[in-house]
Amino acid sequence: MIDKKIPSHVAIILDGNGRWAKKFGQPRSFGHYQGGRNLFRVARIAKDLGIQKLTVYAFSTENWKRPEEEVTYLMTKPIELFYKNRDRMNEIDYKITFAGRKDRFSKELLEVMEIITTETKNHKGFELCIAVDYGSYDEIITAVNQCKLPITKESLEEKLMIKEPVDLLIRTSGEQRLSNFLLWQASYAEFYFTKVHWPAFREKELKKAIKSYQNRHRRFGGLA
Ligand code: IPE
Ligand code: IPE
Ligand code: MG
Hints:
By secondary structure, this protein is α/β, with parallel strands linked by helices.
């Protein structure tokens, strides 16, 4: 599999944390906790497979609608976990970036995001981009408002939070929709849907998705 073409930019909609937890009679927060751990596992595998960039949808501009308890967990637990595992930051040998709005986070969360970005920014090769408080409507409208007329594809792309086109877009947990993720960037992406819930999505699943991608014929409007 590895000798065939590896997608350069892979995006994953990390869905199904809650349903996965429910299966084990656990609270939804347990699913988010395990989903978060899985993110670093899958990023490592993606890097080792030769993927250039992995963009993951971790929290959408619409997810604020969730019950307060869940939103609070998602917005505070990562801060606690970051400081608890502070000394393990040096194991991260790739770049981590964040895409999304920055005006609705706490000062503490912004600080953690800033530390992670700064401490990994000189790493070369692989990038993990975490989309939090991200939504394509917001991204595209913000970009358009920053452009000078007449807007071109290139000038608009220049202003987007995520600039690279997506090659392979994966959604876990059975739903087959974009939920406001990478509407622009996924214009020519290959889609892969799996019923596996995000916390259970491991190396085998990622390799299956890549294998499926390798059997697609991308034409970009032309002829094969
Ligand atoms: C994805 O899992 C994580 C976030 C959207 C924060 P969900 O929380 O959507 O889990 P399900 O879809 O309810 O199972
Ligand atoms: C999309 O999942 C957002 C993330 C995975 C972060 P949702 O669970 O919020 O999507 P819907 O509500 O099922 O469309
Ligand atoms: Mg969901």
